[in-house]
Specification:
Elements (H helix, E strand, L loop, with lengths): L13 E7 L2 E7 L2 E6 L2 E8 L3 H9 L1 E7 L5 H8 L15 E3 L5 E3 L3 E14 L3 E13 L8 H8 L12 E5 L5 E3 L19 E5 L1
Antiparallel strand pairs: 1-2, 1-5, 3-4, 4-9, 5-8, 6-7, 8-9, 10-11, 10-12
Length: 205
């Protein structure tokens, strides 16, 4: 089975933001879409390990900022490669504004935002799918949305190759980090983006 077939699906990329009490947080997701037009509803799917997941579940509302082709890799690093459980991602971060629901949306490298209120939560094991009604939205730029394929080809830095060739390495398909060795430990976690061993591919240089 070739797991790369999943990469051929057309994914957008988004910053999901939420707030509970006085704590704001955001994370990168690639599963957001409209499910009905009348009434206008969207769905998002969020990993339960993400701190933002808990904020959405507890508060019942969220914003989606649609990343555009002008998004820089630093946005993915900021919202995707560190955890809101240990870092306040909005401390000193200024490329954002609050929408009418009181939540942040991202203003740099985005082309739209959508504010929504959760109507239903579906437990999917490792993830939760939230079905939500759209309460507000706006277009921020005319730049095309960044797809996952565009991110892989144009935004994510190309991994540096080790000086020695002909050796086996394992490369993270998310951030490009390279682990040198014939075997990758099953419990290995990428030190850059925190993704598991299942998101590494074996490469012979």
């Amino acid at each position: 089975m070739n797991k790369k077939a999943m990469y051929q699906l057309s994914y957008g990329l988004f910053v999901l933001t939420a707030r509970m009490g006085d704590r704001d947080n955001g994370c990168i997701i690639n599963t957001a879409g409209q499910v009905t037009s009348t009434p206008n509803r969207i769905s998002i799917t969020v990993n339960k390990d993400n701190f933002t997941h808990d904020l959405v579940k507890e508060s019942g509302k969220f914003n989606i900022s649609v990343l555009s082709e002008r998004a820089g890799f630093e946005t993915f690093q900021h919202f995707g490669f560190q955890s809101g459980k240990t870092v306040n991602k909005f401390d000193g971060y200024h490329s954002c504004k609050r929408s009418t629901n009181g939540l942040y949306y991202i203003t740099e490298g985005t082309n739209a935002y959508i504010s929504a209120a959760v109507e239903q939560a579906i437990d999917l094991g490792s993830h939760t799918m939230f079905i939500a009604s759209v309460e507000d939205m706006d277009v921020l730029a005319s730049v095309p949305s960044a797809t996952y394929a565009y991110y892989q080809s144009n935004i994510k830095p190309k991994p540096e190759k080790p000086a020695v060739t002909g050796k086996t390495v394992w490369r993270c398909v998310v951030c490009g980090y390279i682990y040198e060795g014939e075997e990758l430990p099953a419990d290995f976690i990428c030190p850059i983006c925190k993704h598991p061993a299942s998101d590494f591919e074996r490469v012979v240089l």
